[in-house]
Specification:
The protein is mostly beta strands. Helix content is 14%, strand content 38%.
Length: 87
């Protein structure tokens, strides 16, 4: 994300993350939605995150998917770790 322009009404993540990155949740506007693949490198779950107007978060799983691994501080330390399901 890019914090200076937050909050965002919609966030679309196109790389599989081991978990939902908190910085992206923080940048999501109340009433906003984020779509993100969550899980290990060989199988993720497409997840829709909804931030309610009161700031609470709801997430719904929408089925299995497979994306390239998200790398970096809020992703995988090494893309090879994603294949093994390690943080």
């Amino acid at each position: 994300g890019y914090p200076p322009l937050a909050p965002y009404d919609r966030i679309l993540v196109t790389a599989g993350a081991p978990s939902i990155p908190e910085p992206l949740v923080e940048q999501l506007a109340p009433g906003g939605r984020m779509v993100i693949p969550v899980g290990a490198g060989d199988l993720q779950t497409l997840t829709v995150v909804y931030k309610h107007p009161d700031g609470s978060i709801q997430s719904d799983d929408c089925g299995a998917c497979l994306f390239v691994p998200l790398v970096g501080e809020h992703g995988w330390n090494d893309p090879k770790d994603a294949r093994r399901g390690e943080d």
